[in-house]
Automatic annotation (TrEMBL):
<dbReference type="GO" id="GO:1901137">
    <property type="term" value="P:carbohydrate derivative biosynthetic process"/>
</dbReference>
<dbReference type="InterPro" id="IPR028098">
    <property type="entry name" value="Glyco_trans_4-like_N"/>
</dbReference>
<dbReference type="Pfam" id="PF13439">
    <property type="entry name" value="Glyco_transf_4"/>
</dbReference>
<keyword id="KW-0808">Transferase</keyword>
<dbReference type="InterPro" id="IPR050194">
    <property type="entry name" value="Glycosyltransferase_grp1"/>
</dbReference>
<dbReference type="Pfam" id="PF00534">
    <property type="entry name" value="Glycos_transf_1"/>
</dbReference>
<protein>
    <submittedName>
        <fullName>Glycosyl transferase</fullName>
    </submittedName>
</protein>
<dbReference type="InterPro" id="IPR001296">
    <property type="entry name" value="Glyco_trans_1"/>
</dbReference>
<feature type="domain" description="Glycosyl transferase family 1">
    <location>
        <begin position="210"/>
        <end position="356"/>
    </location>
</feature>
<dbReference type="GO" id="GO:0016757">
    <property type="term" value="F:glycosyltransferase activity"/>
</dbReference>
<keyword id="KW-0328">Glycosyltransferase</keyword>
<feature type="domain" description="Glycosyltransferase subfamily 4-like N-terminal">
    <location>
        <begin position="32"/>
        <end position="197"/>
    </location>
</feature>
Length: 376
């Protein structure tokens, strides 16, 4: 079977050599997919100035060369929902410097930053999603904060008005591409996020030859990730379950797990090596959530682990139904339990091969080409 093509890296000279460049990101968390994308773009442009609203506790801002805004010194950083209405203003006061090229990594309002006259400054924006809190409050329950009810319409209008200077958009998935068109009436190209498939595929032999005798759920323990459903699926399938991650739902999920007959083990904030080990030991990853893209399912597939997930959002791009996992339409545990019985039909080698389509090298190639094309 031929491996996915990896095109020669571009360009030969350093990207945007001789031009002043700013990389802009929202708040910077200790871990996260959007942060990984930002750092991958930064690797392509080591000369760029890196600007963020604030960095969470534990982030080595000096090593990462992150310049934080004045918002980092306010109490607003303790609540992203409360900080959201102020973000457009903060971005407009972030820097007095002017740049030749601005590249924003945005899941809220980073794409509204303006660091130069649009006639002279080329602004490219990589969109993880139009702000869920503003545009899709029903998609993520955190967007239903009472403080956002009144200003939501105002923020939607501001989001469109303050981003007209953006010259080109890239979306992290076809799902997000559709939202960009629907909410902003703007075109975009799709560049899937980078996944370190080489690391996850290259586990030590003792990790690769595990018995695969449990189901696995990984992610932040918040309502829309549906970890309560994951527990119910394991119970319906009669299989042990490992839940890895952290979040505000921990106590409730532990209480629910205690009522089940199957063993359920919680791994709180596992290190990367342990996470890889968990992927390799799992019969399948359970991922019944509507995600913009979803890096976790790709990491699992890099380990030859199939994915059982919801037939929505990013999984439509990352999982080949019937080949690298099974996609289901509802949120009832029964069909998932039935799909688990079909897992022997899937070829682990095919699953791993598919994951290579989302490698870090592929992202770097496509991102470099997009930046080069849009800044000529």
């Amino acid at each position: 079977m031929t491996m996915p093509d990896s095109t020669a890296r571009l360009p030969q000279l350093p990207l945007l050599a001789g031009r002043s460049v700013a990389l802009v990101h929202e708040w910077f968390g200790a871990t996260g997919g959007s942060e990984a994308v930002f750092l991958a773009i930064a690797d392509l442009l080591p000369q760029a100035e890196r600007l963020v609203l604030w960095a969470d506790e534990g982030v080595d801002t000096e090593r990462l060369r992150l310049n934080q805004s004045w918002m980092s010194n306010t109490p607003l950083i303790k609540s992203k929902a409360l900080a959201l209405p102020a973000m457009p203003l903060v971005w407009r006061t972030l820097s007095n410097h002017k740049f030749d090229v601005v590249i924003s990594s945005s899941h809220a309002f980073a794409h509204t930053v303006k660091l130069g006259d649009p006639a002279e400054t080329r602004h490219l924006s990589y969109i993880h999603s139009p702000a869920r809190y503003v545009w899709s409050p029903d998609f993520d329950g955190r967007g239903s904060h009472p403080a956002l009810k009144v200003p939501r319409k105002v923020l939607q209008k501001a989001d469109i008005r303050l981003s007209k200077h953006v010259h080109a958009y890239a979306a992290n998935s076809r799902e997000v591409q559709g939202r960009i068109q629907r909410f902003w009436n703007r075109d975009s190209v799709v560049i899937n996020p980078p996944v370190d498939v080489r690391y996850f595929a290259g586990a030590p032999a003792q990790d690769q030859y595990q018995s695969r005798d449990y189901l696995l759920g990984i992610g932040r323990w918040i309502p829309y990730k549906n970890f309560d459903l994951i527990i119910e699926i394991a119970e319906a399938a009669g299989m042990p379950l490992v839940i890895a991650g952290s979040g505000p739902e921990e106590e409730r999920l532990r209480q629910l797990a205690a009522t089940k007959r199957v063993p359920i083990h919680f791994e709180v904030r596992p290190e990367r090596d342990r996470l890889r080990q968990l992927y390799w030991g799992a019969r399948a990853l359970l991922f019944p959530a509507h995600e913009d893209f979803g890096i976790i399912p790709v990491e699992a597939q890099a380990c030859g682990t199939p994915v059982l997930g919801l037939r929505r959002g990013g999984l439509l791009e990352t999982v080949v139904d019937g080949e690298t996992g099974f996609l289901l339409d509802g949120l009832e545990p029964g069909p998932y339990a039935q799909a688990i019985r079909r897992l022997p039909e899937l070829d682990p080698n095919r699953i791993q091969w598919h994951a290579n389509s989302f490698s870090s090298d592929r992202f770097a190639d496509r991102m470099a080409r997009w930046i080069d094309d849009e800044t000529r």
